[in-house]
Each structure stands twice: as structure tokens, then as C-alpha cells.
Amino acid sequence: MEAFDTCGKSGNIIFPEYEQFNISATVHITATDVQIEWRGEWLMSDNLSYWRNNSYPIAFQNHRAGIVFSGSGIRIKGYGTGGVNGNGDTWYSAEAGETQEGRPMPFVLWNVSDVSVEDFYINQSPLWALNIMNGTDLTFRNIVCSATSSEAPSGYNWVQNTDGFDTMDVRNVTLTNFVYQGGDDCIAIKPRSYDVTINNVTCNGGNGVAIGSVGQYEEDNSVDNVIIDTVKIVSSNVRARFTAYIKTWMGALVPQDSYESAGEPRGGGWGNVTNVVFSKFDIDGASVAPLIDQNSGDNGSYSGTSKMQL
């Protein structure tokens, strides 16, 4: 984008309030020491074919990214009016509850350090809303992630895979004051996440707070020093399923048929999940109490083989 070409290094960028900026193509911004007053809204187009065929590939679970930020010293302030609208309702209706390959993540931080994001939203995400992949020293405050379907029949979840806040390959991450509405993980702490502190979370519907999944790939999947404190989980138009849970994969390669495994067998990852604290959870209407599941990806033959130590 032209604004970042001109001011993306030691500059100040303003997206004015009440203005909408149409995003019709993939965006990968690399910035350094930049202040972003993100008062307006970025709206991703509803051209599903374009996004399926042109979004940036992500090897982990065969996903895609539409908008990516990289760099260091990035300060984003949304002032409560700024954020990203992923136009997800178009995807939810088109796929009618069966998530297909090619949905783009609308806000990915990839290869970043020294980043802060505050008073910001990611609404109607086609896939995971706020995803961090390879980041250090990151601070988030007053973040809202929401995914709702206008056409889903009563009792049906058409907003699967719309995680709220996900981390992988991160160190020293803080999230304070987070609100989620959707049909999947409110928060998912994925492989190689270290020193993560999360406080004051509201999860409306979905799968609650997860460590994982881990162990899906044959590599170190460790997670250490994670504190998740003061969480309210409430059933909404999409029922709350889980509360707090840890999910690890089989210890052997197991054939998979989901697009998320790209047709390849998965499992066999190793590592340790240590020093994890879930505290002060207020639960209203969730289906499942706190849970540890070490059989993700099982086809009935490999139960109990996980190499992940908890």
C-alpha cells in the first residue's frame, strides 16, 4: 500500500475515522518504527475465488493469509473505531458450515518484534482472526474478534475455524482485555509459544481457551510459561462447547482426510507443555468442563501414543 511505501519506516500513518478502505488483493506490509492511527476500517472484498487462489500459503494446517504485517517497532492504535472486516459472512453462507480450503486470515503478524496493538477489532474473519507466527515482545490491549453468520439455521455452527487470538513460535506476549464472539477457539496457544500472559477475557460461544493443538507435526511442539487469568465463557448464538483444554496429537503418523492435513498423515510431534495456569474462569452454559485430550487425529488405532508430556 502506498502509505506504507512512503511512511512505513520511522513514519506516522493515519486511516481516518468513518472511512472504509477496500482491500481487494493480498497485502504484505513490512514496517519499522511506525505509528499507525487505524481509526477507519479495512474491508476485504467478497471475491472468494480471488482469495482462494491468491492468498499467501501457510504450511501449518494448510491455511492462507490475506493481510500480513512483518517488521519491528510497530504501534497500532484503533481508538475503538478502527480494525479489519474480513467479509466472513460471505464465506460462511457460501460454505454452509463446511469450511473449505483457501479461506484467508485477515490479520497475521509474521516475523515481528516489539509490536503493540490496542483498541482494535477484527470482525467477520473468514478464518483465524488475529494470528501471530514468529514474534517476540508483543502487547495487545482492548481487542475484539467477532464472527457471526446471518444465514446459519438455528442450532448450527457456520463459523467454525474462526479462532480469535492464536500464537505460534512466539515469546513474551501479553494480551489484556479481549472479547470474542464465534464458533471455534476463543484463544489457541499453539506450538513453541513461551512466556504468554493473558488477562480479562470474554468468550461468547465457541470452544473456549485451548493449548493446542500441539504434536500435529514431527517437530518440537513445546509450550511453556502461559498464564490465562480471569476468563468468562458464555453460550451465545453459537453454543459454548469447551472451557479450558489442552489437545495433543497422536505419537505416530496417522492418515488424515481433512484439507488441513493437505492429504498427508499427521502426528508424531514431541515436546513438553509446562507451567500453564488457567485461573478465575467464570463459566455459563458450556458443554464440557476443563479437559485434556491427547488423542487428536486418532483414527481408532493409536489412542494413548502421544509424545507430548504435560
TrEMBL record:
Family to which the UniProt record says this protein belongs: Belongs to the glycosyl hydrolase 28 family.
InterPro entries attached to this UniProt entry: Glyco_hydro_28, Pectin_lyas_fold, Pectin_lyase_fold/virulence
UniProt keyword Glycoprotein present: yes
Signal sequence, renumbered to the chain: none
A Pfam entry, by short name: Glyco_hydro_28
Catalytic activity: [(1->4)-alpha-D-galacturonosyl](n) + H2O = alpha-D-galacturonate + [(1->4)-alpha-D-galacturonosyl](n-1)
Annotated keywords: Carbohydrate metabolism, Cell wall biogenesis/degradation, Disulfide bond, Glycoprotein, Glycosidase, Hydrolase, Polysaccharide degradation, Secreted, Signal
EC number, as in UniProt: 3.2.1.67
GO cellular component: extracellular region
Name recorded for this polypeptide: galacturonan 1,4-alpha-galacturonidase
Protein's UniProt keywords contain Hydrolase: yes
Functional note: Specific in hydrolyzing the terminal glycosidic bond of polygalacturonic acid and oligogalacturonates.
An annotated GO BP: cell wall organization
Subcellular location, record wording: Secreted
One function term, GO molecular function aspect: galacturan 1,4-alpha-galacturonidase activity
Organism, as annotated: Lasiodiplodia theobromae
